[in-house]
Every structure is written in structure tokens, then in C-alpha cells.
Amino acid sequence: MAEEFPVEIGVVYEGERIRKQDMQVELGGTKVDYKAELVQCRKVDEIEDGKVIIKGRDLQAMEEGGQYPLVILVEVAGEQVEKDLEAVIERRIHDFSNYIEGFMHVNQRYDIWCRLSKKSFQKGFNSFTYLGQALIKLFKAELPIIEKIQITILTEEEDVKPFEEEARKIYEARDARARDLSDDDVDEFYGCVLCQSFAPTHVCAITPDRISLCGAINWFDGRAAARVDPKGPNFKIEKGELIDKEKFEYTGINEMVKEKSLGENQRFWLHTMFGNPHTSCGCFEAIAFFIPEVEGIGICHRNYRGETVIGVPFSTLATQTGGGKQLDGFLGIAIEYMRSPKFFATDGGWNRIVWMPKFIKEQVRDAIPEHLYDKIATEEITTDINELKQFLDQQDHPVKERWIEEAVIEADELEVIPLDQAFAGTRLILKNARIHADKVIIRRK
Amino acid sequence: MHAFAISGKGGTGKTILSAMIVRELVKRGLVLAIDADPDSNLPEILGVEANGTVGDIREELLEKKYSLSPEYTKDVWLEGKTYEILSENDGFDLIVMGRPEGPECYCMVNNLLRRIMDILTENYDYTVIDSEAGLEHISRRTTIDVQDMIVVTDGSQQSFDTAVRIKRLSEQLKARFDHLYVVINDTKNHPVDIEQVKRTGLSFLGSIPYDPEIEKACFEGVPLPEQSQAGEAVHHLLEKIL
């Protein structure tokens, strides 16, 4: 095939743009109503390896400068080819078709937009057979798990329209699955150091259940960026071992944090704001802050102009929180993180949230457990900490469970003697105790 | 790809000079014109239509960041939109940067844009950037790799002061361009004062004579004439560089 192929194929052609003035035909794009590309996994005996099927007008029959509907259907089979890989394989149509000299491919799914150059058409690229052949060759070379591959090209609206309608259902089903993806379902997380120009020790750990603090990079974006430029600001993190199920501590995350924070931080617990929390950059969408008086967590977003329930505005909180340091009880978050099933899971999740501006409360209404919605205060209810406590008490907010057995022992000096001698046969339990000491002296007997 | 950036104090004629440089370069190869002035009018001066701005699609992406389908990743979306707003014309394409950034985080979107612009500009022989009046494009290093930075002055002391500030700032920031030139855009009443140019310490590329045809086009709000005395002068300036 290589000898008779009319144009060259290679990575050098990636990024080659075909201008309107230089194009033979345009396929898909905004001026065409129907277009789609789809990868489907088949059983080995369902497809014929290497076959290219063209239904409808072929390239040589298309008017110069014309616009036409297009379907690229790639059917693949192989022992290791699973349904879950369809979207990943589908994305490669973009890469591989752009390797073809004089062929431009933009967008994906129901938005595809392709152009063929006059030059490549004149060189003999006058049939979709060549597109199919090139894709088959590249897919097999780059993804060896594909044992069989068959390609179908449709160019008539009567075929493309119903195909797109069916394909949309498949994309939707895939999206639903993708939205349900959790940290436990994947082997790789992604990291982002885009904000290190502002916060040199900050790194974002991006997982299916934890979007970047700016809210702009989800796990899928991280994966796409890391594939395009593995040494760039978004990179792959091998998840490693889950060493603490309660705190969501992974060996892979810890290694990455050590390296990317330049040794400043050693470990991240993914879904908590205490102990070894994630760091905060400077461009987080919101801040979660611990309110010790009520044992609860408040949240404030960037565009909230007033004072929070702890008496300071967002800007003051932001100065304290940002900068790439691990801070107990202060954490930058994305608003979307509030929709995560693991939203502060270690700390009690929504049961711990006591205050947030009305604006975001409405925005994330769908994520707040129904029985809690009215129990969470907003600035309309109060911005005073004592009133907040009364409100939570009246509303019977679940955070109240953390208030009981509160006792204060004040002493100028308290001598603690090893248990076996002093309290033989008794047990001392301190719940929610906060111990403050100016000096601790440990003496050998 | 050879990139020119046109900068200088507001009102000195950056956009007119940018348009004339585009007109001239089209004779030599394929040109990408970038209107990087938020108060843009390069399309009108070149007599072409803009299809939207990078600023608009950047905002649209940030607004849609939670509603895009998870597997329709933002890099793909943004690349497609950037190509859609590119205005394709005979000999040159035009892209308008549009509105400046708002209060949100632009790290992600600007990172994606840098890559898209790097790939896009590789498709052209020349890139001409009509910069905004301020110095922000230099201080934030948002400009793509530029070989020749041309500072336009109108002969006024203030416009020379701006040229000096641009020089100083670019040295401090180790900005990414090879040459820094100053061009004088003549007004009717003030002949060129070479001494004033020398004091700036920038290389003097030349001056553009006052041209009533250009002035007329500006006042009428119509595209620049294809042939003009000023255009002829720009031709000679570029001969010196290229």
C-alpha cells in the first residue's frame, strides 16, 4: 500500500491547517447539519479486517469547494478491546487523520470538521478509500490491541442524519458512565502545576472524584493534556497503593507531591481538610474553612463580596489559604467538587457543612442531601457565629453530634502520671478535647 | 514563520501600520494578522469581517466548564472554536483577541490557547500582531515568539517615552524578540526629528510620510486603499528587515 499511497503520512502534518482558499472539499463543520464519528467494539467475527466501506458520494464526485455531511465509523475487534476503550480509541481518529498530508480534522463526535486540500486531491487523494486505509494502518501500528478493524464512510444526508441520531445516544450513555467514574475505577490520576508560577510548591492532584481547584481541569482533561504533552504542566500520576482508606492516601500521590512541591510537602489526604490536606494555589473557585465554635465547615466562593460567618471576607480567607501550604482547616476547592461523592468524605461530607453564600447553595442544590438543605445557613440567615450556633441547634444539624460531652478543664498546672499507676482499672475518654499547654515537660521517674 | 508585533502609545497609528504591513506581506507569503487590541478595529481597516473573538470563546469555555460532556475535553473544544472564529481572506487570515480577562482563573484556558496559537502560527509565513496600547502584553509575556517588535511613535515626546519604557521593560523581562525598532508616523505639521529618535536608544527603522489618502480612509471608516504613498514607505521599511 505504501508505494501507491498518493500522499505522505506522518506526525509532521499534524497541526497543518487547510484554508478555505486551498480546500477541495469540506466535510462536516458548522455549515453542515449532520456529521459524526464513532468507534464501536465488535466481536471478532462481526467485521472484516482492513475493509473500507463507502456509502454515498466519494471525493472525486464532490464539487470543488463544496460542503458535505460525513460519518466516520471505525469498528474494532480484539481480545483486549473493551467497550470502555471506545472513547479513547475514537479520540485517535483526530490524531491519525491529521497525520495525512493535506487532510485537516477538527473537533470530535457530532462536531467533526474536515477539509481536504486541493493539492492532495490533485496528487491522487480522490477517494475515501485512502482515508480509510490510512486510518487502518495507523490504528494497527499505534494500538496493537486492535486485531481487526473495519471503516465505514457515509456522505449522504439520508444516511448521516439517522446515524448521528443513534450516535448521540451512545455518546450520552458514555457521558453518564464517565460522570459516574470514581477514584476506585481508575489506575491513574493526573497532576497539574500550571499555578506554580504563583504558588511554587502547589500541585493539584486531579482524580475522577476531585477536579482541579480552579474547576477547569477534570480527570478527562488531565488525561488528554498529559497524552498530548507528557512533560507539560499536566502529567500522569500512577495511583499506587491506597494506604489509608479513611483518609484516601495513595502512595502514588505522595511520591508526586514530594517531587512537585520540591520536598515542601510529603503527603496528601485527598478528601479532607485536616491532617495532611491538599494544598491551595491562588485561583481556587471557593474556600472551605473550618469553624471550631460549631465543629462545622463553611464555604465561600470568589464572587461573594460580603463577610463570611467568621467575620472576614473571601479576600482575607484567600490570602491565608493560598500559596501552596498545607493548612489545617483551610482549603481551596472547585465548586464542582461539592458534587463529588467523596466531597470531604473523611470529615463527614455534607453532614459537616454549616454555612455558605446563598448563591452557591442554589448552584449546587442538586448535590446537597435534601434533608440537609434547610439546615445549612447562608448570609441571609446569619453572618454571626453565635447566631449560627443557635441556628444549627434549632435546625438539629447533624454537626450537633460533635458538640456533646464538651468539657473544659482549666488548670494552671496539670501533672499527668502514666495510666497504669494512677487510674488502674478505670478508663478516661476525652471527646472533642482541645488541649492547650504553654509548656510540656516529660520527666523520667 | 516570521512574526512582527506593532506596539506603542495609544493613538500613534499602530493599527494603520499593522494593516499596511499585512497588505505588504501578503505579496510575499501567507499572513496571519492578530488583532490583540481589546478596542479592536483591524478588521475594519483591512476591510474584512471578524467572526468572533478569542476573548468570547475563552469566556464561553469557562462558563461551560461544568456542562461540557466529560469526554469532550476542553483542548478539543477550544481548538475547534479558535478555527471557527478565524477569518479567512485572500492572502491572509485574521484572528481577533477581543475582551481582556475577568476575575476567574485563566491558567488552564491560556495554557491551552498558547499551544493552539503556537500550532496555528506555524501554518503561516508571517504573523503580524497589532498589540494593545499598554505594556501588559509584554509584562505578562502573552505575546507569541516575535522576531521584530516595532514601536510606533507620532513624534511626540510622550510616544518616545513609551518606546523607551517598552525597551526597558523588555530588557528586564528578557522578552522574546530579536529586534526592537522605532517607526515615526508623520503628522502633517511636524517633520521627523532624528535626534529625538536617537535619544531613545532604539534602532530607527524609518518614517511613514503623512498621506491624505490614509487620513481620508480613517475619517470615512473605510478600508485602507490598496495603493498609497504610505504603503510605499512601509514596503521600503520591510525591505530593510526581510
Summarize the helices and strands and which ones pair or pack:
The complex is a heterodimer of chains A (445) and B (242).
Chain A: E1 23-28, E2 35-41, E3 52-55, E4 66-68, E5 70-77, H1 86-98, E6 103-106, E7 113-117, H2 118-122, H3 128-142, E8 148-154, H4 157-180, E9 188-192, E10 204-206, H5 219-228, E11 234-238, E12 242-244, E13 249-250, H6 251-260, E14 286-291, E15 296-301, H7 314-321, E16 330-333, E17 353-355, H8 358-363, H9 385-395, H10 419-422
Parallel strand pairs in A: 1-4, 2-5, 3-8, 15-17
Antiparallel strand pairs in A: 1-7, 5-8, 6-7, 9-10, 9-11, 12-13, 14-15, 14-16
Helix pairs in contact in A: 1-3
Chain B: E1 2-8, H1 14-25, E2 31-35, H2 42-46, H3 54-64, H4 74-85, E3 87-88, E4 92-96, H5 107-121, E5 126-130, H6 136-139, E6 148-153, H7 157-172, E7 179-185, H8 194-200, E8 203-208, H9 212-220, H10 229-241
Parallel strand pairs in B: 1-5, 1-6, 2-4, 2-5, 6-7, 7-8
Antiparallel strand pairs in B: 3-4
Helix pairs in contact in B: 1-10, 3-4, 4-5
Report on this structure.
The complex is a heterodimer of chains A (445) and B (242). Chain A is an alpha/beta fold. Chain A has two domains: 11-180, 2-Layer Sandwich (Bifunctional carbon monoxide dehydrogenase/acetyl-coa synthase(codh/acs), Chain M, domain 3), CATH 3.30.1650; 185-402, Bifunctional carbon monoxide dehydrogenase/acetyl-coa synthase(codh/acs), Chain M, domain 5. Chain A is built from ten helices and 17 strands. Chain A has helices spanning 86-98, 118-122, 128-142, 157-180, 219-228, 251-260, 314-321, 358-363, 385-395, 419-422, and strands at residues 23-28, 35-41, 52-55, 66-68, 70-77, 103-106, 113-117, 148-154, 188-192, 204-206, 234-238, 242-244, 249-250, 286-291, 296-301, 330-333, 353-355. In chain A, α1 crosses α3 (128-142). The radius of gyration of chain A is 29 Å and the shape is elongated. Chain B has a single domain (2-241), classed as Rossmann fold (3-Layer(aba) Sandwich), CATH 3.40.50. Helix content of chain B is 43%, strand content 18%. Chain B has ten helices and eight strands. Chain B has helices at 14-25, 42-46, 54-64, 74-85, 107-121, 136-139, 157-172, 194-200, 212-220, 229-241, and strands at 2-8, 31-35, 87-88, 92-96, 126-130, 148-153, 179-185, 203-208. Chain B has an eight-stranded mixed sheet with strand order 3-4-2-5-1-6-7-8, with helices on both faces. In chain B, β6, α7 (157-172) and β7 form a beta-alpha-beta unit. In chain B, α1 crosses α10 and α4 (74-85) crosses α5 (107-121). The model of chain B has no long low-confidence stretch (mean pLDDT 89). Classes of the chains: A alpha/beta (445), B alpha/beta (242).
